[in-house]
Amino acid sequence: MSGFGKVAVLFGGTSAEREVSLNSGSRVLAALQGQGVDAHAFDPALQPLDALKGYDRAFIALHGRHGEDGTIQGALEVMHIPYTGPGVLASALAMDKFRTKLMWQAANLPIPEYVLLDADSDFAAIEARLGLPLFVKPAREGSSIGITKVKATGQLAAAYAEAARHDPLVIAEKGVMGGEYTIGILGETALPIIKIEPATEWYDYEAKYNRDDTRYLCPCELSADKQALISKQALEAFRILGGRGWGRVDFLMDEAGNHYFLEVNTAPGMTDHSLVPMAARVAGMEYPVLVRRVLELAAND
Question: What are the distances in angstroms from CA 59 to CA 78, 132, 190, 286?
Fold first, then answer.
């Protein structure tokens, strides 16, 4: 017996990240079943949520809306089913890049300069203020969906229109171009930092999931002191949002060696391209052990 009872692995769902979730969830399911856990696939797009009654625990491998934004977490709370990852409020906050930034600003954590956009924004003035390149993104999407890198004057309006197709809440963010990094969190521990070197211009959907030429450096080439500072602040950034269990904090470096926190992922990918399994492996934890540990951390708010 695994001690976990009957476990639902939630994956698939209805968000724009459904395909990634199907990949993540199928691997998680196989890892749990391979360790003798009574784990079952559960796709909320195909099954009513009340079919979860009778399960003892849930592993959330859903990505994006209705999986990572507090909604499925709220349903599991009502049913008193412990689940992996952060709770309702933390999940909702982390899914909203704008409100995440507000929380981090209040805590004096470093973030890139940004502006909230709407259809009446003075796009030329914002381009001048933030400088180029800048990034325009829907505030409540994941996997780089709807994001545009604005590289030339006059492109901001079109980038806003593209992002607004995905979410009425849109932000423009100063380009911080000294490198992209991520740090996984497991319980109270920060995993080794990974530096991401995409062959594409930036770490877009294609680089994340479909290409094999993205380089991942772990060890990440930052100094030991810098890594220690970032690890400490990343745990703080996660906790400020109410994070618990596990997650992933993404950050950027500028050319001067300053770091800026970008966002939190509260249901990190578990595919063969995914970053938390990669960092865990460097820390000596193979994929099945990682999956089991995440499940052990399942809780209710």
Answer: 16, 41, 21, 18
Annotation marks residue 210 as catalytic = no
98 with 214, same domain: the answer is yes
| 107 backbone dihedrals φ, ψ, rounded to 5° | -95, 5
User: Is 260 among the catalytic positions?
Assistant: no
pLDDT, position 1: 47
* CATH number of the domain bearing residue 52: 3.40.50.20
- Report the chain's mean pLDDT, rounded to a whole number: 94
- Based on the domain organization, do 240 and 284 belong to the same domain? yes
Residue 207 confidence (pLDDT): 65
Active site residue: 127, 167, 180, 263, which one?
A: 263
Round to whole Å and give the CA distance between 102 and 174: 16
Q: Which listed residue (15, 91, 265, 274) is catalytic?
A: 265
Does a structural domain hold residue 214? yes
Catalytic residue, candidates 209, 242, 247, 260: 209
Annotated catalytic, 263? yes
Greater confidence (120 vs 207) lies with 120
Task: From the candidates 141, 167, 180, 250, give the one annotated as an active-site residue.
Answer: 250
Query: What predicted TM-score, i.e. pTM, was given to this entire model?
Result: 0.93
Q: Verify that 201 and 288 share a domain, yes or no.
A: yes
CB-CB contact of 115 with 169 (8 Å) = no
For residue 183, the cross-strand partners are 249
Which residue in 143, 146, 204, 244 is the catalytic one? 143
One domain for residues 50 and 130:
no
248 catalytic, yes or no? yes
Taking only the tens place, the pLDDT of each residue in 78-88 is 999 999 999 99
Supply the pLDDT for residue 199. 80
